[in-house]
Amino acid sequence: MKNNQERDAEGIFALSPVIPVVTIDAAEDAIPLARALLAGGVATMEITLRTPAALDAIKAVSAAVPEFVVGAGTVLTKHDLAAVIEAGARYALSPGGTPKLLKAARDAAIPFVPGVASASEVMRGFELGYTHFKFFPAEQIGGAAALKSLAAPLASARFCPTGSITPALAPSYLALPNVRCVGGSWLAPPEKIKARDWAGIEAAARLAASLGKDA
What we know:
The protein is α/β, with parallel strands linked by helices. It has one domain: Aldolase class I (TIM Barrel), CATH 3.20.20. It contains 10 helices and 9 strands. The protein has helices spanning 4-13, 30-39, 54-64, 78-87, 99-106, 119-127, 143-150, 170-174, 190-194, 198-209; strands at 18-22, 44-48, 69-73, 91-93, 112-113, 115-116, 132-135, 158-161, 182-184. A 6-stranded parallel β-sheet has the order 5-4-3-2-1-9, sandwiched between helices. A 3-stranded parallel β-sheet has the order 6-7-8. The longest helix has 12 residues, at 198-209. The protein is globular, with a radius of gyration of 16 Å. 45% of the residues are buried.
């Protein structure tokens, strides 16, 4: 029987073939950004905790665009996890996973997706009940070929690879049976957010939404 983390993480991975990974410097940009992504067919984004505005941005989107599933990235500690839950994040991701964080997140109110870069890290995740992982930094640790090699020995693991993935590279990842989605920073890079190029971001989201696996 699947635990709540597994079921909930499956739902998050199914939201979009590409989860936008965004860094926001001004919280007021978060709402029009979410609406632009949503108009392009992408109903989620990962707001990274890399700026002072991140928590306010998560809170703003959660309140103003409730149909949009806002997540939090770069969650490194139990404190970070508690803060993003309080801000209204619907899921959280980390570039890695310490024992303390993995144990705390196991019973959290939202799905948590730990980052992994090796078979041993996946196996440690299995021991704590995790089956869905962020494969990071994807291109730098072997890319789609590395994930393909993990499919047989770690058959129950499902991945969202993130890290230097481009629109041209994304289809090779999405074609793998153990990949459910990819993380992509190209949809809403900082320069487009600062320029408030919502039309350009909507167009990028539309393209990303079309990258799903062939039926």
